[in-house]
Amino acid sequence: MMPLRRFTIHQPKNIAEASGMLAEFGDDGRLYAGGTELLLAMKHDLLRYQHLVDVKTIPGLANIESKNGSVVIGGAVTHRAIERSPVIREKLPVFAEMATKVANVRVRATGTLGGNLCFAEPHSDPAALLLALGAKARVEGKKGARTLSIDQLIAGAYETRLENDELLTSVEIPAVAQSQRAAYLKFQIHERPTLGLALVLEVADGGEEIKKARAVVGSISAAPARADSVDARLTGARRKVEEQLQAAAEELANVADPVDDLQGGADYKRHLVGVFLKRAFIKALA
Ligand SMILES: Cc1cc2nc3c(=O)[nH]c(=O)nc-3n(C[C@H](O)[C@H](O)[C@H](O)COP(=O)(O)OP(=O)(O)OC[C@H]3O[C@@H](n4cnc5c(N)ncnc54)[C@H](O)[C@@H]3O)c2cc1C
User: What pLDDT is stored for residue 1 in this prediction?
Assistant: First the structure.
């Protein structure tokens, strides 16, 4: 590992000041939260910045609140805070449970939700689950605020649709309703997830009827993947859906178009989609 090149840390007092700094520094500047991705990449000399703008000094970005049937999680909230939050555990237990399985406790204690989503590392647990839950990311910059769905935010591997002067300030996630069932399962052999499978179902008749479904597979390709046609296969009488699970998994794998990498071959990952979609279906309805 290389010694770190010299850089300056700036501590803005608010979002406007942070955005102004990013605009001023241009390609020489970058936001910094927990530093678990950024500082590692800088130590390896893969990324070089002279100015780091610390989001943790901005008031309000580490808040978690329940608002109008949703949970709003600030961009600088750590995975550990998510896992321990009474609000998230009550309103979005599936999200709290997912957070307990991100990385290890040291990374969770400093790594943030904003850093995870905005680094857009393809092996992300929160990104897949947030897409299934229909979460919206609020981003703010010099031109004002805008809201993006998770698939709009993540453009591809290590790529987001944020402008240079924009920060992710919060993520708004609809609370899981009484009529909904949600499950997230991950499979991991190395440091990062090999696959994450998120499933959110809206049910009636004690779970015998699936009124709506949203399945997302993450970590097997550049960005989390889903399709309306897959979700349609997962909708209807439970018995019919059970018969369709393999076909739905094959379609979901096709949409994701898995890549061969150190986590495994594409065919192996296609197989995992089938195994984990079936397990997630059972878990969601249990
Ligand atoms: C050993 C290890 C294991 C891991 N395992 C997992 C795992 O199992 N599952 C998983 O999902 N993830 C895993 N991760 C990734 C981990 O979740 C991220 O490292 C962490 O969340 C990044 O957050 P950070 O605050 O440290 O980001 P930083 O390193 O500070 O920043 C990362 C990037 O995000 C940008 N950024 C940060 N905050 C914002 C913001 N508010 N708005 C806009 N841009 C921002 C920065 O400019 C930078 O480009 C692992 C990481 C490590 C090191």
Answer: 64
